[in-house]
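Inputs:
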Amino acid sequence: MEREDRLALIVAVARAVIAHEEELTRLDQAIGDGDHGVNMRRGFEAVLHEADALAKLGTAAALEAIGHLLVNRIGGAAGPLYGTLALSLGRHGGNAQTLDDWILAFGQAIEDVKRRGKSEAGQKTLLDVFVPVHAVLVEKGAEAVAQLHRIAEDAAEATRPMRALRGRAAFLGDRSVGHVDPGARSASLVLGVIGRVLCGEN
Amino acid sequence: MLGEPKVGVVIVSHSIKVAEGTADMVRQMVGDAVPLAAVGGNPEGGVGTNVELIHAALQRAWSEAGVAVLVDLGGAETNSEMAIERMPPAQRDRIVICNAPIVEGAIMAATESSGGSPLEVVRHAAEELMAGR
């Protein structure tokens, strides 16, 4: 991946997250503490601010640097999770060349996120997007990248009937049922945009 | 025992007011013998937790006897874990997050530490509060 491609990807993801601040806030006000939109905007504004410098790094090094920024700037419960994902993806993707290499690194990064959050898929978290999306990527490869947007949005939507078992929403128990998880929604945004950019859409 | 390092206590809340209020209670009840740091909120001064701020608090309260960390909700724990991982490897293993209520746990941990107890005993004193529920 060339510098311009990295820059396009970083800018597109950051802008998409920032543009959806209100939606994430609304979702988080329903079942969390309402700070997910603000926190994600703050984190990705920092990324956008550094986009040029980040894009000059190699892909793996850029991911690690983004991870540190997200950990420091997002805060909340999402900072360590998105930060761990990017850091770990950078570390495991150090020698990645092909799409398959990156899919493998993504799977390893997801395992690190599970450990960090002491969580698994099925507990109404961002893992309910990462895990099923990764499974489709493993199965279908490039074909899945072309549909990443839809696959990720479907996975986020599938958190609606779930009962939250982790995070602030777990305090609500059954009252968390009927709302899309804000972390799952932000995860679907990020993955969806990555898919679109990799396929040359904008 | 005098002059022996005592276990440090770090209080991590989403709210700096909760963290500092808890530290006030600890100082009133236990005194100033125990290295103590309170941290809370995000860098903008709002409610939240932040790895860099927690890391700085760990450094302030660092003791050769180790540090017991008390946290409130979810993100406080994960952000504290990441802050601990930023400490030098030799210090990292002597920092524990206690599974205890933040106010009562901080007071129990500091009380135990002020008597010169080692880290595992300090942690146990804080965590007994949960076992008794």
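Chain A has a mean pLDDT of 95. Flag for discussion at group meeting.
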